[in-house]
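Today's session is about reading a structure prediction critically. Students often jump straight to the picture, but the first step is always the sequence itself: look for stretches that repeat, for charged clusters, for runs of hydrophobic residues. Only then move on to the predicted structure, which in these notes is written as discrete structure tokens rather than atom positions. Here is the chain we will use throughout the hour.
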Amino acid sequence: MRKIVLAAALAAILPTSAVFAAEGVELPEQQWSFNGVFGKFDKEQVQRGFQVYKEVCSSCHSLKYIAFRNLEELGYSEEQIKTLAAQYQIEDGPDDSGDMFKRKGKSSDYMPKPFPNDNAARASNGGALPPDLSLIVKARKGGPDYVYNLLLGYEEPPANFKLQPGMNYNKYFAAGGFQIAMAQQVKDGVVTFADGTPNDAKQIAKDVTAFLMWTAEPKMEVRHATGFRVMLFTILFTVLAYFLKRRIWARIEH
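Below is the predicted structure for this chain, in token form.
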């Protein structure tokens, strides 16, 4: 049993491109505000996604590359970030006696892990190791479409499908033979949004996926803006070079 669950967990963190090609799993495409050259994050949506992460995902999954201060890019104020960080207990040290100690979180701290180590994580999850979600969207073929559909892909297995004990059937999890250790987490009403946004499963999945896209590419908007400026400069330079060439060669008799 332990080997089966562990194998499924390992499959969850390995690249899935070959499996998708072999199984022919088709991911329904979604419309995302961040798609395309001029794509931008919907800050309100990403904030809702962060709420979903805190209330649903953070008990098992870490965000080891995200510091509290990074949330300022989502529109949170400095005071809001300090208040949020202070709600967490961060291990620090050693002190003068050589002992580690707990303290309130600070804006400069990274999001704390839900488990002290991988063995503790496996012990709490039937042998499966919940992957860190910081880069999960970029690490999967299909990106945000894969994550979104995976969250909603739970259903009863086909009549002739042999589901292993402790596993759940997910029609988009080809990497694990459509068997995943994580039970369905995103359901209607699992969170309540303060801004009145509908809290059906599809909306919740879309918001948390947008947040995870941001954690994977927090500088995406800056990158897009820089690329656009570089393209404008390149076009302008090309036009100037063309007219300069025409002026120089116009003086030479052919």
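Discussion point for the tutorial: The two ends are 84 Å apart (CA to CA).
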